[in-house]
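Lecture notes, continued. The same structure-token format from the folding unit now serves as the input rather than the output. Read the line below as a description of shape only.
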């Protein structure tokens, strides 16, 4: 029984479409459901808009537990431009970041870290 060439092409196209759809659904799920949520407080040391193709806001929060101690760094990503502007306005002030951790995001087009900031509050 000979297999028709058009059936092979149809199967390949169908498999490719199914793969793209599966990747899109997995990406959507990894960005929608968070693994954990939390708060971190400190001073934003570094905040920049970077990337070759996909520009994302990436930041570094210096958390000082006790005055005089070496600060621990918390690396984070911001997907919302309005929130990024809010962070830029609060540079130099102590802030509290609310974040969600998203594990398994398949590409860094959505952020270089797995910690996505959802809100900020100026503490002082």
């Amino acid at each position: 029984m000979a297999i028709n060439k058009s059936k092979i092409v149809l199967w390949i196209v169908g498999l490719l479409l199914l793969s793209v759809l599966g990747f899109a659904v997995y990406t959507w799920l990894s960005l929608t459901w968070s693994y954990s949520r939390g708060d971190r407080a400190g001073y934003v040391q570094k905040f920049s808009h970077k990337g070759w193709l996909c520009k994302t806001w990436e930041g570094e929060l210096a958390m000082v537990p006790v005055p005089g101690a070496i600060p621990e760094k918390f690396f984070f990503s911001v997907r919302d431009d309005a929130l990024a502007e809010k962070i830029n306005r609060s540079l130099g002030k102590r802030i509290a970041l609310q974040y969600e951790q998203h594990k398994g995001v398949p590409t860094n087009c959505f952020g270089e870290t797995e910690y996505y900031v959802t809100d900020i509050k100026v503490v002082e």
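Point for the exam: The chain is about 30% helix and 35% strand.
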